């Protein structure tokens, strides 16, 4: 048994019989892309009704064994998170706001009638995997180790009710740049589809939300755009979020706004971090509804000077062009803006230990 800093969590370690050869790993890390390659290990923890969380273990990453009647396959009881580990300048490793991911994970679990995982156990599981796969940090500029914690319902039962058994798993993937287009700013397509409705699961990070976005995202790609934008379900007027990122809008009078968290938008941790940094920059920051028509008009008048998307995978990404069935419009010069670059630089510097961290966001391993 190997004990972490928190004595409440002990992980059984299972040695890997055939870890990836160093030369093969080096080739992967030189150009990892995003989500295509995976490290050697994974963490698993089981939950059963009446027993709770038990059997925390780390061992070789490999296929899962599930009964064909497992509830996750029929009723989509599944949630996940996404966060990154970084190799700092002094060679040490660090996580960015893992406690926030743990809290959001449990909020998603509550919405999908799944058991809460103690936040300390969530963070310990992440740390355990990063330590085990410390050789998997990419060598490319801006590279990181992307971490995917998730939970699935494993009980074999076809009745419609919450399952009585679950498995929590963490896997890791070396990550380079999320967008491969090479454009200085992304182009987005406004979808006619709806991502989430009031009272639904829009604020939960569950697979069903992303499955519903695949057709509109494919439509955006087919039309030559990088991402898809969803409007509200009731009026199809108000901007909500992209397929996997939150949005910000910067104006010529120093205002910065982002759509409010109304239950249909994922409460992004990058979003929350940027709100704090923007306020420190002295900007007039607000969370308020913003319509597509207003976006189009403000871009045409020059009142809106920048727009950017944000999320764990892509960090901060300028939005240069927006298109729908009525035409398209350009934001600013169509490229990266000064504020977007400044906020991204500040955030990345904190994440990588290159700047002071007054908020205590960086957790060193």
TrEMBL record:
Cofactor(s) the record lists: pyridoxal 5'-phosphate
Pfam families membership: Aminotran_4
Catalytic activity as recorded in UniProt: L-isoleucine + 2-oxoglutarate = (S)-3-methyl-2-oxopentanoate + L-glutamate; L-leucine + 2-oxoglutarate = 4-methyl-2-oxopentanoate + L-glutamate; L-valine + 2-oxoglutarate = 3-methyl-2-oxobutanoate + L-glutamate
Presence of keyword Translocase: no
Keyword Chaperone set for record: no
One annotated GO molecular function: branched-chain-amino-acid transaminase activity
Class in the EC hierarchy, top level: transferase
EC number: 2.6.1.42
Pathway the protein takes part in: Amino-acid biosynthesis; L-isoleucine biosynthesis; L-isoleucine from 2-oxobutanoate: step 4/4; Amino-acid biosynthesis; L-leucine biosynthesis; L-leucine from 3-methyl-2-oxobutanoate: step 4/4; Amino-acid biosynthesis; L-valine biosynthesis; L-valine from pyruvate: step 4/4
Domain of life: Bacteria
Keywords: Amino-acid biosynthesis, Aminotransferase, Branched-chain amino acid biosynthesis, Pyridoxal phosphate, Transferase
Biological role: Acts on leucine, isoleucine and valine.
Similarity-based family: Belongs to the class-IV pyridoxal-phosphate-dependent aminotransferase family.
PANTHER family: BRANCHED-CHAIN-AMINO-ACID AMINOTRANSFERASE, SUBGROUP IIII AMINOTRANSFERASE
Name of the protein described by the UniProt record: Branched-chain-amino-acid aminotransferase
Organism this protein belongs to: Novosphingobium aquiterrae
Lineage of the species this protein comes from: Bacteria, Pseudomonadati, Pseudomonadota, Alphaproteobacteria, Sphingomonadales
């Amino acid at each position: 048994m190997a004990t972490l800093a928190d004595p409440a969590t002990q992980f059984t370690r299972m040695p890997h019989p055939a870890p990836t050869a160093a030369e093969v790993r080096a080739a992967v890390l030189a150009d990892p892309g995003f989500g295509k390659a995976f490290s050697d290990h994974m963490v698993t923890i089981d939950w059963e009704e009446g027993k709770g969380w038990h059997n925390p273990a780390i061992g070789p990453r490999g296929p899962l064994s599930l009964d064909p009647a497992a509830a996750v396959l029929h009723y989509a009881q599944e949630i996940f998170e996404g966060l990154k580990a970084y190799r700092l300048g002094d060679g040490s490793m660090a996580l960015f706001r893992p406690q926030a991911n743990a809290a959001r994970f449990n909020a998603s679990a509550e919405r999908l009638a799944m058991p809460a995982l103690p936040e300390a156990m969530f963070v310990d599981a992440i740390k355990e995997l990063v330590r085990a796969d410390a050789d998997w940090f990419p060598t490319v500029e801006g590279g990181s180790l992307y971490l995917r914690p998730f939970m699935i319902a494993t009980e074999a039962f076809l009745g419609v009710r919450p399952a009585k058994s679950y498995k929590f798993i963490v896997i890791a993937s070396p990550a380079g740049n999320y967008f491969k287009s090479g454009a200085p700013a992304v182009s987005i397509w406004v979808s006619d589809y709806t991502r989430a409705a009031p009272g639904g699961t829009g604020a939960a990070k569950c697979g069903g939300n992303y499955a519903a976005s695949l057709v509109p995202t494919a439509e955006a790609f087919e039309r030559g755009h990088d991402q898809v934008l969803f409007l509200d379900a009731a009026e199809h007027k108000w901007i909500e979020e992209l397929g996997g990122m939150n949005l910000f809008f910067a104006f010529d009078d120093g205002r910065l706004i982002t759509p409010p968290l109304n239950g249909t938008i994922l409460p992004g941790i990058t979003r929350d971090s940027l709100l704090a940094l923007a306020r420190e920059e002295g900007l007039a920051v607000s969370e308020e509804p913003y319509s597509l028509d207003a976006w189009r008009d403000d871009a045409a008048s020059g009142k809106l000077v920048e727009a950017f998307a944000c999320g764990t995978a892509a960090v901060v990404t300028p939005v240069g062009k927006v298109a729908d069935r009525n035409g398209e419009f350009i934001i600013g010069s169509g490229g990266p803006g000064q504020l977007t670059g400044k906020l991204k630089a500040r955030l990345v510097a904190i994440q990588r230990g290159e700047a002071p961290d007054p908020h205590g966001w960086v957790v060193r391993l």
